[in-house]
Specification:
The chain is of the alpha/beta class. It is 30% helix and 21% strand.
Amino acid sequence: MSNPDPYLHMPLSAFGTPARDAALAVILVHGRGQSPAWMYEQVVNRFARPDIAWHAPAATDGSWYPQRFIEPLEVNEPHLSRALARLDAISGALLEQGIPYEAQVLMGFSQGACLCSEFVWRARRRYRALVAFTGGLIGPPGMHRDVAYGVLRNMPVLLSTWDDDPYVPAGSVRESAALFEKNGAAVTLKIEHATGHGIRDAEIGYAREMLADAAPSHHDKR
C-alpha cells in the first residue's frame, strides 16, 4: 500500500560502496540548514572508509523539525514524528536489501545527531552504533523517559560535543549519555573545551575508532 506522506519520499543521496557490497551501512543525517552534500564533505570525505555505504536523506527546507531540540516534544510535531518515520523507512529498506540492523549505523550532526539519537532510543533495536556529533535526545531537560534496562546490549554510542557550543547545551548531552547507559549501551562521551559549532577532526577520529572493529561483512556466511 502506498504512503502519501511526503516525508517518506524525501531525496536520498548514496555515497561510497553499494550497500550490498559494504561492511557497514551508515544512515547519515545533516543538521539544520545543511544538506547531504555538506555531510559528504564534512564526514564521508574525512572518514576515508571505502567499505562503507552512506545513505544521506535531505530534510524539507533543510530542517527536520522547527524548534530547538530541548523544547517540549509537542512544539516539534508533526515534523518530528515524520522525520523519525523517514529514518525508519531507510533502515527498513536496508534490511530488505539484506543488511541487518547490526550492520547499520545512525550518524548525524547537530539537529541530525538529535534525530538519530531519538530514533535509536525509540526503536529499541541494537544497531551497529549511534554516532551523535553535537546532539542528544529530543525533549526538555529532565523529561521522564521509560528506560528499558539492557535493551541496547552494549551497543556502541558516541556522543561528542564542545563544552561551549552555542546551540547544544553540554548538560543535555550528558543527560542523554546517562540514559543510553541505563538502556545498556556502551557509551563514549566526549565533551571537550572549545567554542563553536562543527565537527572536529578529533570527533571523526573517535567515530572511526568506534567503527574500526566492524564485524565481518553480512555477506560472510562462514
